[in-house]
């Protein structure tokens, strides 16, 4: 049952990102220049965390799992930017894609550090 919830969570979140990208405008505050890059990085941090949980069964070595999650996040970010090129009022931005990829990389760094610490202590948690 947990596996089904993990897969559903990742797919639902991907769908949520797609839905957001399909909107002509998003009601976000404009507090500082480049704020949207922080939103992108945060969104893809969450996406990568969900992917990390899903990929643990198919990518056993931590380095392979980390690479798979980063590639997944980066490719989904690229497809998201491409999708926006077809949405009136939106346009693709390479810097948005880089922020997406950075968010995925940061998530992998945090989660792989947690994974490494749990295995060094002799406790193997499913993270």
Short description:
The protein is mainly α. Helix content is 72%, strand content 0%.
Structure description:
The protein is mainly alpha-helical and 127 residues long. It has 4 helices and no strands. It has helices at residues 2-21, 35-55, 62-84, 94-120. Helix 1 runs antiparallel to helix 2 and helix 3 (62-84) runs antiparallel to helix 4 (94-120).
Relative strand content = under 5%
**Could you tell me the mean pLDDT?**
90
What coarse outline follows from CA principal-axis ratios? globular
Instruction: Using the CA coordinates, give the radius of gyration.
Output: 16 Å
Number of helices: 4
Mind sketching the topology for me?
Layout: H1 2-21, H2 35-55, H3 62-84, H4 94-120
Helix pairs in contact: 1-2, 1-3, 2-3, 2-4, 3-4
Primary descriptors:
0% strand, globular
């Amino acid at each position: 049952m947990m596996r089904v919830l993990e897969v559903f969570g990742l797919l639902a979140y991907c769908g949520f990102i797609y839905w957001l990208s399909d909107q002509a405008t998003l009601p976000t505050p404009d507090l500082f220049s480049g704020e949207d890059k922080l939103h992108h990085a945060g969104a893809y941090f969450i996406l990568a965390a969900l992917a990390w949980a899903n990929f643990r069964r198919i990518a056993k070595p931590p380095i392979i799992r980390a690479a798979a999650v980063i590639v997944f996040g980066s490719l989904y970010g690229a497809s998201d930017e491409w999708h926006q090129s077809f949405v009136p009022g939106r346009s693709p931005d390479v810097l948005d894609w880089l922020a997406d990829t950075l968010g995925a990389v940061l998530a992998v760094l945090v989660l792989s550090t947690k994974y490494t610490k749990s295995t060094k202590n002799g406790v193997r948690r499913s993270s």
